[in-house]
Design a protein that fits this description.
It is a single-pass type II membrane protein. This protein is an alpha/beta fold. 39% of the residues lie in helices and 19% in strands.
């Protein structure tokens, strides 16, 4: 039997050592990449308390509870407007988060986009507009005035909730809960601030183009890209404790000026609040952090403007929603001008279509 020469054996040993080192390096790199993903996973899920024993956020008929892992609050529906039976064409329940004393602004909104004569989508029943107002317990004079207004117009949901920024997360969850439990046949639940000028008829085109789809788990509105700063100062209005969300930046989310979530997404958000501690930055919490937890897709809608300076009023700009600081009369006049321009454009397109068909 022939034995390999010493030189050949030496070469084989060197080759074996080389291959062993390459394999070890690959395993080391693989382990590094795997371990580098762990902080990201821990970051996004560190505030999710899967063993939480808190009750679910739930509606009990005349009362409801909004529940987080660290705090639960009970509320009462003080006034519930009548909701007509919804058909398949009832697309959007749009609820305004209104301040208790905003009587004049509510009347302006009733004269503009909430008015059937100015909004076809409201007139044909595809959108139902309402207000949600919180009443501070013990303020009997304010309660009397708001309850009279609610009964007169039949468009206000009244709850015994403090009207403060700190309660905004609770207020927005009350809006979603109302839509899920009191008006379950609406495909989409919307929340809008009272300082947003809104042209809801323009949403119809977004439905027709497939930009808005009511079937999946989605949140729609003015999308803020991932990476927004997190405020850790306890004295800051937008304070978020690291124990609740340990990432250095926020995930993508939808601005609280106006957002719409599918019924299924709203239901999932409501069920999931018990697994996280309370966070008072409402839009980030509901449409960002919880949406990320639940796999809810965040989608941007065109023609949404978040800041007052985004619009030059001297120019013609196509607007669906504009978050602004207009006074009541300015709000009314801007809406009327914008509506007239939209209706003229729509009439012109219809005339051109008719002419083309005849030719």
């Amino acid at each position: 039997m022939l034995m390999p020469r010493p030189k050949a054996v030496h070469v084989l040993v060197l080759i074996f050592i080389f291959l062993f080192c390459v394999a070890s390096l690959r395993n080391r790199n693989s382990s590094f990449h795997e371990s580098s993903e762990i902080p990201k996973e821990n970051c996004t899920r560190s505030g999710w308390l899967k063993d939480s024993t808190a009750p679910e956020t739930q509606d009990f008929g005349s009362e409801f509870v909004i529940s987080f892992a660290d705090i639960q609050k009970n509320y009462t529906w003080l006034y519930l407007p009548e909701i007509e039976e919804a058909s398949q064409e009832k697309d959007i329940l749009m609820i305004v988060a209104s301040r208790t004393d905003s009587y004049a602004r509510r009347n302006i909104m009733r004269q503009t986009w909430m008015n059937k004569s100015d909004s076809e989508i409201v007139a044909n029943g595809r959108m139902k507009p309402l207000f949600l107002v919180g009443l501070t317990p013990g303020d009997y004079k304010m309660k009397k005035m708001v309850m009279q207004e609610a009964k007169l117009y039949g468009d206000i949901i009244v709850v015994d909730m403090n009207d403060t920024y700190e309660e905004l997360t609770y207020k927005s969850l009350a809006i979603l809960l109302y839509g899920v439990s009191k008006a379950p046949r609406y495909q989409m639940i919307g929340k809008i601030d009272e300082d947003v000028i809104f042209f809801p008829d323009k949403l119809t085109a977004l439905y027709e183009q497939g930009i808005i789809d009511a079937t999946p788990l989605c949140a729609y509105g003015y999308k803020i890209q991932a990476g927004a700063r997190i405020f850790r100062d306890k004295n800051d209005r937008w304070y978020v404790p690291e124990s609740s969300y340990s990432c250095s930046k926020f995930p993508e989310y939808v601005s609280g000026m106006l957002y719409m979530v599918t019924w299924e997404a709203a239901q999932q958000i409501i069920k999931s609040t018990k697994y996280r501690d309370f966070i008072q930055v409402e839009d980030v919490f509901l449409t960002g952090i919880l949406a990320e937890d639940l796999g809810i897709s965040v989608r941007n809608l065109p023609k949404f403007y978040k800041y007052p300076n985004d619009i030059d009023e001297s120019k013609s700009v196509d607007i669906i929603a504009w978050h602004n600081d207009q006074k009541d009369i300015q709000y009314l006049n801007f809406f009327k001008k914008g509506l007239a321009r939209y209706q003229n454009e729509k009439a012109g397109i219809a005339a051109m279509t008719t002419t083309s068909a005849q030719n």
